Amino acid sequence: MTESSAGLRVRGAFFYPQESIDEVAKTSPGEFIRQVRAETAKVVWPTRKETVATAIMVLIMTGLLAFFFFGTDAAFSTLVRKLLSFLG
Questions:
Q1: How far, in Å, CA of 15 to CA of 8, rounded?
Q2: What is the average per-residue pLDDT within 17-36?
Q3: How far apart are the first and last CA of the chain?
Q4: Which of 13, 16, 51, 56 is the least buried, fewest Cβ under 10 Å from its Cβ?
Q5: Burial code of 7-45, b = ≥16 C-beta within 10 A, e = fewer?
Q6: In angstroms, rounded to a whole number, what is the distance separating the alpha carbons of residues 84 and 77?
Q7: Are 41 and 35 in contact, with CB atoms under 8 Å apart?
């Protein structure tokens, strides 16, 4: 890190005002864990049914995309082979 003439620290492409670096809140590990638990309690977790339905949809879409890209690749491969056959 380098110091610029305007009192800003330069770190890569980012400029940080000097006073904001020194005013970073200090949190104890215990307080951090309490905050994490409080935030985790606010999360609405999906039900098993929602998770299974989402996983099935992901598998279906993955299969459809695999077939689509296989077909697209085969079509371009055939096209390139035919074009190259004209050269030699």
A1: 6
A2: 77
A3: 60
A4: 13
A5: ebeeeeeeeeeeeeeeeeeeeeeeeeeeeeeeeeeeeee
A6: 10
A7: no
Query: Is residue 39 within 8 Å of 49, Cβ to Cβ?
Result: no
**Model pTM score:** 0.54
Alpha-carbon torsion, ordered 21, 25, 26, 27, to 10 deg: -140
Distance between CA atoms of 32 and 36, rounded to whole angstroms? 6
What single-letter amino acid sits at 72?
A: T
Left, alpha or beta for 43 (phi > 0: left; psi -120 to 50: alpha)?
Answer: beta
The CA-CA-CA angle for residues 11, 14, 20, to 5°, reads 85
Quote the Cα angle for 67-72-77, to 5°. Answer: 125
Q: Which residue has the tokens 């003439």?
A: 5
